[in-house]
Amino acid sequence: MTARDLRLTVAETRMLCPDVREIVFRDPRGATLPSFPPGSHLAVRWAPGRRNAYSLTGQSLEPDRYAISVRLDPNGRGGSRWMHRLRVGETVEASAPRSAFAPVAAARHHLLLAGGIGVTPILSHVRAAVRWGRSFEVLYAHRSGVAPHRAELVDLCGPRLTLATSRAVFRERLLSRLSSSPLGAHLYVCGPTGMVEDVTAAARAAGWPAGRVHVEAFGEPAVAGGAAFTARLVRSGREVAVAADVSLLDALCASGTAIPNLCRRGVCGECRVGVRAGGVDHRDSYLTEEERSVALMPCVSRAAAASLELDL
Questions:
Q1: How far is residue 105's CA from residue 107's CA, in Å, rounded to a whole number?
Q2: Is the confidence at residue 264, as pLDDT, over 80?
Q3: Per-residue pLDDT, 74
Q4: Helix, strand, coil percentages for the chain (3-state, nearest 5)
Q5: What is the DSSP secondary structure assignment for residue 146, as one 8-state letter?
Q6: If 208 and its partner were Cys, which of 12, 109, 132, 203 is the partner (CB 3.0–4.6 Å)?
Q7: Could you report the per-residue pLDDT of 194-236, keeping only the tens digit for each?
Q8: Bridge-based pairing state of the strands 109-115 and 185-192
Q9: How far is residue 97's CA from residue 117's CA, in Å, rounded to a whole number?
Q10: Whether the predicted pLDDT of 12 surpasses 60
Q11: Which residues neighbour 212 within 8 Å (Cβ) at sequence distance 6 or greater?
Q12: What is the mean pLDDT of the segment spanning 17-43?
């Protein structure tokens, strides 16, 4: 536990739908918790060296509680199962809130798109938009009968909320909003990787500048494998062999090079490493095209040739 980490106590839990559990944390001494920008997440430690990031859904200014919603993933690494077993009164360690998905305060309009459990950071955007009187609307895609936080969104958004339970309806509403949103609008999308890719492709086709499209993806871990290669660490002068069935991140960590990491799916940006030279097989959903010329996400991306020079 670092000096910036928080110790939190489980205050409440409830099931929002069959596979999504809401967990509310408080400071053990009852103190006010640090404020955070909408779209922030907590990284909760669930095993030695293992943390999972969960979006904060509650009030962001001087909160007395942190609320997260966790979807049970039976095929995951075990973090969601651990979270679903937590009981009231237990204590956890977590990072201070961090965000790479905050709203742009100067945006003329906020178009908020959520898919499934991707509704969690969108909910915090909505709370802030209502509080500050910002122009916004929400398009929420979910499975029929499985819509965590739907009731809260209905109360907060009223007619500014559109629900979609089929891909066809979602795409129809999406294209309509992309073509009718005012100049200066910003788009925010959080959901499965496939949905995020479809939305960003539609936004590009509709002429939206990349700087006005903000994404946060949830999805399955990317395939780590590929051809073996050598990572040359320019600053330390070391070389690290990366086997065909091992991720670059795991190879670096095994060699003694400490790399901060969270999601291991190429979506959170935590493990970003600078690239000095060499081609990259980019497999992340985080970096922009411009950033990909100088950086990579070693949890999922690899060298595109026999070697790669890193700023390490």
A1: 6
A2: no
A3: 86
A4: 25, 35, 45
A5: B
A6: 203
A7: 899 899 999 999 999 989 999 987 755 555 678 999 999 999 9
A8: parallel
A9: 19
A10: yes
A11: 107, 185, 186, 187
A12: 95
